[in-house]
């Protein structure tokens, strides 16, 4: 069987879907990865995938440019003729569904979070909703990553609910992200790992740090994530430099392996405005780290308030600072118990094998061929 996957970056395929693709390859199936070229494209080929470059912007929606993208999707899929397409992120979901309909190819779309377009108002959101409404009439199946996203999405986009279901995100490899004991450093470190976008709560994180510094708390803060100032909602590089000069944070750009950073941290923070199922929290929880995140869709499905971490009010630096202070007030034994609960919850609910099994069943259902 030939299985195609389309996402808006090769990095995303390799880092978030590698386990799923490897499961197909291990069964002798052919996998075609369709994505813009980046440094991870050769890694997809090295693991045994066929790679097809398809340039596309990860942000913004331009009907003229995206019309060309639709034609390119059609051409690639007509040439490759996969038995099924797995699509993720807004443009592959929309234009992949339209191309698959024209070619008679089953498509399993994954709405892995509503993205910034659903947080905004106005033209961009209306365009996205219109395109999704038209394209998803033809989707064979649609996976959502939490029930709140599913409800919000279907409030705008009419779907046949019999062709939708929930997944526990992308899942996490709980063997690769093995549990690590909490550090015992005299000065604890808390880390935030995210793209440096407004909606990830970067400004809230920084303001919470300022508030905690005024209270005299001795704690280090580490910010990890790629800076992409071409993105309309990116923070500015000058701001990032200022925060470092002020001694508010230690900054590390995007890391290929975040495990050493998580291992050094006493807890992981994510004050995001909305998520699908945040991979950062899954990885940190798998490694046995308490989690401090906003009480928003996605985050609250991973963080059990008071059990494996704390939830704070969204876009509220004062409440974020209060929850960080609450965590730091716990004894090391109490923090360790929270860490164990975090690992257990991820193992039981978000192991990537749960995701892989659901994909295998759905591919079999739609193609009539066993995985």
TrEMBL record:
InterPro entries: Glyco_trans_4-like_N. SUPFAM superfamilies: UDP-Glycosyltransferase/glycogen phosphorylase. It comes from the Bacteria. Residues 22-168 form the Glycosyltransferase subfamily 4-like N-terminal domain. Keywords: Transferase. The keyword Transferase applies. Signal peptide: none annotated. The keyword Lipid metabolism does not apply. One of its GO terms (molecular function) is glycosyltransferase activity. This is Glycosyltransferase involved in cell wall biosynthesis. It comes from Marinoscillum furvescens DSM 4134.
